């Protein structure tokens, strides 16, 4: 049997803003038993990557985990991989920030583990061709991608089990391809299948590097991996098979001859490139891929990560807000950018089988850190700019206590930031059709022998009754007629924004603790005005001309007075979304709908009360 160099890598991460109980559960079911098991097999070399979010949590709550990792590094068993400290998608953040985030992680690794990192875990394996230059600036020599990256770039399937070299403008970078086959074998199929597959490749370099959470957090895997002893037996078999030699990525740089040059198109792992497609295209792509012959399947690539910003305007909004803050902090040192870096954590900017963008607490964490990063660098005023690059100029209003962003479509508020405590009251996502909605009601079984990509299940019985789609992107004080929003021209006066259409005029007036909205009839008035609000509080009071919401965050009360409307209704906003545990409903907030009367003037006044 030809010798196989086998690299085993584990990447572990939790999002900025995730709940402590989620991290504690992941430590109990995954990170602790995973490290315990690796420690039992000093002859098996492993490459580890933890995001900075996890390192900080370990140091604060479970420092012994850091000691275990240091122990394995010191005995030469474990390589520590670098990466962006707060796990950003590197190509979508400014280069200065990307290099600083990697340098921050490099320095952390040196200080904590006395180890010099050689390469990075590439977040979500999102590759763009300029990355070799960026990574070399950060002192990195290699990164890890999927084999699909190279196959779609023209590397023959028979040559994929190798180390490769690529470059950008002469800056070279070593590339390790992860085997998709191994991703689906380990830890879900029988160990014999993995050994047999490794033997079938005829020697060379085989890489399995994937989410550590597959080993205990993913549904059904704790029982299989630890209670049934899969991982110990896997390491035992690898250790005792003479033709398999484990090594780290850093070892391979010194001992494996690379092939090159190779060039890869923009890519991520294959599942991600399906998720990013528009809903109807994704449905067609899934059917096409399922029925395609193997010789054709490798040419089916899916979409491009940045198109999450096209698919979800809320993701685009957060991304462009992040870029706005980054521009203000350009040239500053790492310590002054920590909140910005936290706001660059990738998880809330996209959605696939994980909740991601649809999880309100993850989006809120992004906005919290963006608001905090801006403290002290902005005065008051109104800026007119197409900041989100959607082709229409928005109004950005900065007051002492809050920020607003107004959009001319619907004349609506698409961001409403309270500065203290830092919270975006318009952190509500629009309800849209998703490809997986066609599977509502299905029941699958997670037994640890199938990945979360192979099982479809609904976590609740009655999800269909919560399924609703919005006709427009949600925004506060959005005007609707026949479920369509009006489009306005915009005029700026001192502390006022006037939106005008043939039907009516709408004026926002800003003051220290809130703002007024007034509608003046032209040819007509909108049929209704919607006011979504990102709150999960049950303390809501509705009177004839007043809405009062005691927000669940930071002792804030929001009062909305209104005049000229004939009635008001309230509904909870639920989305039906995919998660690693199955399809589930997620409360996004509440929405008030004000129905117009027959008068000529409507008005509303919103006040922020800090208790």
In short:
With 611 residues, the chain is an alpha+beta fold. Helices cover 29% and strands 27% of the residues.
Your description of this structure?
- The strands form five sheets. The chain has an eight-stranded antiparallel β-sheet, with no helix packed on it. Strands 1, 2, 3, 8 and 9 form a five-stranded parallel β-sheet that branches. A five-stranded antiparallel β-sheet has the order 10-11-12-13-14.
- The mean pLDDT is 93.
- The longest helix is centred in the N-terminal third of the chain and has 20 residues, at 20-39.
- It is of the alpha+beta class and 611 residues long.
- It is elongated and about 85 Å long.
- Strand 15 and strand 16 (484-485) form a beta hairpin.
- Helix 1 (20-39) runs parallel beside helix 3, helix 2 (52-61) crosses helix 3 and helix 16 (313-328) packs parallel to helix 18.
Question: What are the key terms here?
Answer:
alpha+beta; 8-stranded antiparallel beta sheet
In percent, how much strand structure appears in the residues?
25-35%
| Quaternary structure classification | single chain
Q: Count the helices. How many?
A: 18
Major β-sheet strand ordering: 17-18-19-20-27-24-23-22
Overall shape: it is elongated
Q: Residue-averaged pLDDT, rounded?
A: 93
- E-strand count: 27
Backbone CA Rg: 26 Å
For the report, how would you describe the main beta sheet? 8 strands, antiparallel
């Amino acid at each position: 049997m030809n010798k196989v160099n086998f690299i085993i890598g584990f990447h572990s991460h939790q999002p900025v803003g995730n709940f402590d109980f989620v991290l504690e559960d992941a430590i109990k079911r995954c990170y602790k038993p995973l490290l315990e098991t690796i420690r039992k097999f000093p002859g098996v070399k492993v490459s580890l990557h933890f995001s900075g979010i996890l390192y900080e949590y370990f140091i604060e709550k479970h420092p012994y985990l850091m000691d275990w990792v240091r122990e394995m590094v010191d005995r030469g068993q474990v390589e520590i991989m670098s990466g962006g400290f707060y796990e950003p998608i590197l190509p979508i953040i400014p280069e200065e920030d990307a290099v600083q985030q990697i340098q921050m992680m490099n320095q952390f690794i040196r200080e904590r583990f006395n180890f010099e990192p050689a390469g990075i875990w590439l977040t979500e394996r999102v590759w763009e061709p300029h990355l070799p230059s960026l990574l070399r600036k950060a002192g990195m020599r290699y990164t890890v991608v999927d084999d699909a990256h190279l196959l779609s770039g023209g590397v023959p399937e028979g040559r994929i089990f190798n180390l490769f070299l690529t470059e950008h403008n002469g800056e070279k970078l070593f590339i390790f391809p992860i085997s998709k086959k191994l991703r689906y074998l380990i830890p879900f199929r029988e160990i014999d299948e993995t050994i047999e597959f490794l033997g079938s490749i005829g020697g060379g370099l085989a890489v399995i590097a994937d989410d550590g959470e597959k080993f205990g957090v993913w549904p059904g895997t704790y029982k299989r991996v630890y209670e049934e002893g899969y991982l110990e037996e896997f390491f035992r078999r690898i250790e005792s098979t003479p033709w398999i030699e484990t090594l780290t990525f850093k070892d391979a740089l010194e001992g494996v001859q690379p092939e090159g040059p190779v060039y890869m198109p923009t890519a991520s792992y294959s599942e991600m490139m399906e998720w990013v497609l528009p809903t109807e295209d994704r449905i067609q792509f899934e059917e096409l891929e399922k029925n395609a012959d193997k010789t054709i399947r490798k040419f089916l690539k899916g979409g491009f990560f940045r198109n999450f910003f096209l698919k979800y305007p809320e993701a685009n909004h957060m991304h462009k807000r992040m870029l706005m803050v980054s521009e203000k902090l350009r040239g500053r040192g790492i310590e002054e950018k920590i909140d910005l870096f936290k706001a660059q954590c990738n998880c809330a900017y996209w959605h696939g089988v994980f909740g991601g963008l649809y999880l309100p607490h993850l989006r809120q964490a992004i906005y919290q850190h963006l608001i905090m990063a801006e403290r002290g660098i902005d005065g008051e005023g109104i800026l007119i700019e197409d900041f989100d690059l959607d082709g229409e100029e928005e109004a950005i209003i900065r007051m002492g206590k809050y920020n607003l962003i107004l959009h001319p479509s619907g004349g609506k508020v698409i961001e409403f930031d309270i500065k203290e405590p830092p919270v975006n009251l318009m952190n509500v996502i629009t309800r849209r059709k998703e490809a997986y909605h066609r599977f509502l009601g299905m029941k699958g079984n997670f037994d640890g022998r199938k990945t979360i990509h192979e099982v479809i299940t609904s976590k609740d019985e009655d999800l269909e009754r919560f399924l609703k789609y919005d006709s427009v992107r949600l925004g506060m004080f959005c005007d609707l007629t026949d479920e369509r929003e009006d489009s306005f021209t915009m005029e700026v006066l001192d502390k006022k924004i006037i939106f005008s259409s043939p039907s009516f005029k709408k004026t926002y007036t800003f003051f220290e603790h809130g703002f007024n909205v007034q509608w003046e009839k032209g040819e007509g008035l909108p049929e209704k005005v919607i006011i979504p609000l990102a709150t999960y509080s049950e303390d809501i009071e509705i009177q004839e001309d007043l809405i009062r919401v005691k927000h669940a965050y930071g002792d804030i009360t929001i009062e909305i007075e209104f005049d000229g409307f004939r009635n008001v209704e309230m509904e909870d906003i639920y989305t039906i979304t995919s998660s690693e545990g199955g399809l589930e409903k997620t409360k996004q907030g509440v929405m008030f709908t004000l129905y117009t009367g027959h008068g000529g003037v409507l008005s509303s006044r919103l006040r922020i009360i800090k208790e």
